[in-house]
Write a structure and sequence with these properties.
Layout (H helix, E strand, L loop, with lengths): L4 E5 L15 E4 L11 H5 L2 E9 L2 E2 L2 H14 L7 H13 L5 E9 L4 H4 L5 E8 L4 H6 L1 E7 L6 H4 L13 H12 L4 E5 L12 E6 L2 E5 L9 H12 L3 E5 L4 H4 L3 E6 L3 E8 L2 E2 L4 H12 L4
The structure holds pyridoxal-5'-phosphate.
């Protein structure tokens, strides 16, 4: 990926009343070194992030992403982000996005290790880059395998320090799961709990179709609440379908009438093969879903 644009955010408190944040956003050379060697995000993955899809310069579902950033900050005991400031940073980055699809990434780190530097407070930055071409996954679909997440359905409540509902920078496990999926000749994975319930994909939410009802695993702390899934559910409801959040047994994956992995940049990828078994693909509905997801959404 070629970074097109980057800016460093000097975070202000959530209740800072200013409306002009220009002097807190410093545009930097995206190819030049910018982080301290004491940065805790790089040393420990101690921070949070969001990835926002951008279509023809329009950043999608910004409010939902900012709310999830605030939620992740709460779970990680990070200072509450000033959402107006982050919105200003997103708008500044969006100006740099060319026609077509891009991705804006927001990163909020715990900061620089104090022992070494004496510095305090979080560090934050925003990047923008063109998105990879996702058209094959959207139209031809993806092969998926289920992978044991190694945690049961009660883990999020029993052990909140696992930060399971936060979008943290510690994505090494998610990336390892994708590599395992590739080793098994699949494009992606769906995590299931050790007691046999569906969670999410390493970088996407799962939506199943059962008749005319669309189901996703309830985001009860163990998984992220996907902004794309929320948007797709609104669209499905507007189009006369019913939707629901359920505790989905892994066995339900095999009997689904259709299945998608949905996320902010790849959008809706229909699942064609699950653990080697073919799944029906509704091409027309998938195309309509992706057309909606590519339209400007706020
Ligand atoms: N679940 C995980 C673990 C993710 O990393 C992501 C996105 O990266 C999602 C779900 C989907 O979220 P969104 O639709 O907001 O991109």
């Amino acid at each position: 990926m070629t970074w097109r644009f980057a800016l460093i955010v000097a975070p202000v408190p959530a209740d800072d009343p200013r409306t002009d944040f220009a002097d807190t956003l410093a545009v930097i050379d995206p190819d030049a070194p910018a982080l301290s060697v004491g940065e805790l995000s790089t040393q420990r993955g101690d921070g949070i992030f969001e990835t926002i899809g951008v279509v023809d310069g329009h950043p999608q579902e910004v409010q939902a992403h900012l709310e999830r950033l605030a939620h992740s900050a709460r779970l990680c005991d990070l200072p509450a982000p000033n959402l107006a400031q982050w919105r200003a940073a997103v708008e500044r980055a969006a100006v740099e996005c060319p026609a077509g699809e891009s991705a804006i990434k927001l990163i909020l780190s715990r900061g620089v290790e104090r022992v070494a530097t004496g510095l305090e407070g979080p560090t934050a930055w925003v990047t923008a880059a063109p998105a990879a071409d996702m058209s094959v996954a959207r139209t031809e679909g993806i092969k998926v395998v289920t992978l044991d997440r190694g945690l049961d359905s009660g883990a999020a409540t029993r052990a909140p320090w696992l930060l399971l509902g936060a979008k943290t920078l510690s994505y090494a496990v998610n990336m390892a799961a994708l590599r395992e999926a590739h080793r098994r000749d699949a494009h992606d994975a769906i995590f299931v709990t050790s007691d046999g319930y569906v969670l999410e994909a390493p970088t996407a939410s799962v939506i199943l179709r059962r008749g005319d009802t669309f189901i996703t695993p309830e985001p009860n702390g163990g998984i992220l609440h996907g902004t794309t899934q929320l948007s797709v559910f609104d669209w499905l409801e507007e189009n006369g379908h019913s939707t629901g959040y359920e505790h989905v047994p892994a066995a339900a994956l095999g009997t689904a009438d259709a299945m998608w992995l949905v996320s902010s940049v790849r959008l809706a990828a229909p699942v064609t093969l699950l653990d080697g078994r073919e799944l029906p693909v509704d091409r027309e509905l998938t195309a309509a879903m992706n057309a909606y997801l590519l339209s400007p959404r706020d």
